[in-house]
Design goal:
The protein is an alpha/beta fold. Helices cover 31% and strands 28% of the residues. It has eleven helices and 13 strands. The strands form three sheets. A six-stranded mixed β-sheet has the order 5-6-7-3-8-9, sandwiched between helices. Bound molecules: adenosine-5'-triphosphate.
């Protein structure tokens, strides 16, 4: 049984259709990045999966209907919106009490052990903690939940780069195992691409790309082209061309590596660059430089 199975998942707010018939299968043990611009429908899709909003279409999460079986589903799901959700007046010890009270799979001792590795005091109020400390607290709480599915919606919003890195390191080293499935949305695609097994691009309520990272690496190649090879490279019909440090960098879809290697330095494109390339309507031939 897949962890998430969506067929024709649709969500409208009044006349505005935020999610437009998404088909998506996420197998267990995958780490999936949901990537898309503001307002693309990522949070809405996640809310449907978490049983936080009614929807149209077929959706099963861990074999359950999230809307009608939310209570049961939540026993196996852990979820962080962004780190600002903990109220400022709450003491750390009360946060532990609260999660212990509401979540049957919360391992308090484990949370205490994680907190012992930080400088966070039990009697501090959330409001006096730095943003990074709030993240550490959040992590300690969420990662002490024995969940089968972890949903992270912009988990590091507003945090500096050191804490963001620490967050993902902890996630992978201390939390993830093959039995757990993780779904992450972020606007910092470059920070999570090395931990993802799959990437799903969402644009305007639709899936624009759904691929394993392995398949992506096999399909898309970026070449920093030797100037003498530029015309030859352009003849292979890149899907995007841009300038990087004064050198033309061309992105190819499905062109054999043997044909590309003689043209310059080849590498896998970053997810953010790929996203821009796939979602921009500008023909590559007209784009000497683009965003
Ligand atoms: P971001 O990256 O900015 O967080 P997102 O991809 O998560 O964006 P959503 O929050 O899912 O996007 O929003 C998708 C669309 O649905 C947007 O146009 C948004 O304005 C709209 N929307 C979201 N929530 C509501 C709501 N409760 N009522 C009405 N419209 C909503």
């Amino acid at each position: 049984m897949a962890c998430i199975e969506a067929r024709g998942l649709t969500k409208a707010y009044g006349k505005h259709v935020a999610v437009k018939g998404i088909d998506l299968t996420v197998e267990r043990g995958r780490i999936v990045g949901l990537i898309g611009p503001n307002g693309a429908g990522k949070t809405t899709a996640l809310k449907a999966m978490l049983g936080l909003t009614p929807f149209k279409g077929d959706l099963r999460v861990l074999g359950r209907d999230p809307w009608s079986e939310r209570d049961l589903l939540m026993q196996d799901v852990s979820f962080i919106a962004d780190v600002a959700v903990l109220p400022r007046w709450l003491r750390v010890s009360q946060a532990l009490d609260y999660v212990a009270g509401v979540h049957p799979r919360f391992d308090r001792a484990r949370a205490e052990r994680s907190l012992a590795q930080t400088v966070i005091k039990r009697d501090s109020k959330v409001g006096v903690l730095s943003k990074g400390m709030v993240t550490q607290l959040h992590l300690a709480l969420v990662m002490a939940i024995e969940a089968k599915l972890l949903v992270l919606d912009e988990p590091t919003l507003g945090l500096d780069i050191l804490f963001r890195k620490q967050f993902y390191d902890t996630l992978i080293n201390d939390y993830y195992d093959d039995d757990r499935t993780i779904v992450i949305t972020t606007h910092h695609a470059e920070e999570i691409e090395h931990i993802l097994t799959d990437v799903v691009f969402i644009n305007d309520g639709r899936i624009a790309l759904n691929s394993s990272m392995d398949a992506l690496a096999a399909r898309y190649v970026e070449v920093r082209v030797d100037p003498a090879q530029l015309e030859h490279a352009r003849a292979l019909k890149p899907i995007r061309e841009r300038q990087v440090f004064g050198r033309s960098t061309l992105l190819f879809d499905g062109v054999a590596m043997e044909a590309l290697e003689p043209l310059g330095e080849v590498r896998m494109p970053g997810i953010a660059d790929l996203f821009v390339a796939l979602l921009s309507n500008t023909p590559a031939a007209n784009t000497g430089v683009n965003a």
